[in-house]
Specification:
The chain is of the alpha/beta class. The chain has one domain (7-190): Uracil-DNA Glycosylase, subunit E (3-Layer(aba) Sandwich). It is 25% helix and 21% strand. The protein contains five helices and eight strands; from the N terminus they run E-E-H-H-E-E-E-H-E-H-E-E-H. It has helices at residues 47-56, 72-82, 113-118, 131-138, 177-190, and strands spanning 7-8, 21-25, 84-88, 90-95, 105-110, 125-128, 151-156, 159-165. The strands form two sheets. A five-stranded mixed β-sheet has the order 3-2-6-8-7. A hairpin with a 2-residue loop joins strand 7 (151-156) and strand 8 (159-165). Helix 1 packs across helix 5 (177-190).
């Protein structure tokens, strides 16, 4: 059996002042797939297209002018204004197949949720963006997993939280972009972050 190397998370958590919502994926893809130095950097991942669709009715809203990458500056500016934080549920992993697939991602060290939430005193909602992220987060909580598009209430260290389970933004997840965006839109409406 070959000993595979562990990989530390390459990005710092993104925690805007006044964060209301923390979004948690699993772990970034290999750097060769990145189009920016930020979360969801793979151009084949649709997270920023979902955000464009939900908030601006334009799936290309967060693309660069040449439509070949994501506009990291406008994404960060938007997240800062909305109070949306980003991190991942894994801090150290082994890529069993060397790719970005959650199916072959072994988590060596998961997020220190208590430490993270101490840095986000106004945060009242968490959202996982895929099954691996959901499994990892809920291993730290005393709560049942919600169905995709749903949420559960949970008290964590005296803080009442709403924990959503959203569909993966990966194109490997078999739902059309518009359907994923509709599910995300419903969550943002429920959280008062988007008018109906």
């Amino acid at each position: 059996m070959i000993d595979l190397p562990t990989e530390l998370h390459p990005l710092e958590p993104f925690f805007p002042e006044g964060t209301k919502l923390l979004m948690l994926g699993s772990f970034p893809p290999a750097r060769k797939r990145w189009k920016m130095e930020f979360y969801y950097p793979n151009f084949q991942n649709d997270m920023w297209r979902i955000f464009g669709w939900v908030f601006f009715e334009n799936k290309e809203y967060f693309l660069t002018q040449d439509r070949k990458s994501f506009d990291e500056v406008s994404i960060k500016d938007f997240l800062n204004r909305k109070g949306i934080a980003l991190s991942d549920t894994a801090r150290e992993v082994i890529r069993q197949k060397g790719n970005a697939s959650d199916k072959f991602l072994e988590i060596v060290q998961s997020i220190d949720l208590q430490k993270v939430l101490e840095q986000l005193p106004e945060c009242r909602a968490l959202v996982t963006t895929g099954q691996k992220a959901t499994d990892t987060l809920f291993a730290l909580l005393d709560a049942p997993q919600p169905s995709v598009g749903g949420y559960v209430g949970c008290n964590y260290n005296g803080r009442d939280l709403r924990i959503y389970r959203m569909p993966s933004s990966s194109r490997a997840y078999p739902k059309p972009l518009e359907e994923k965006a509709r599910i995300y839109r419903q969550m943002f409406c429920e959280l008062g972050m988007l008018s109906v």
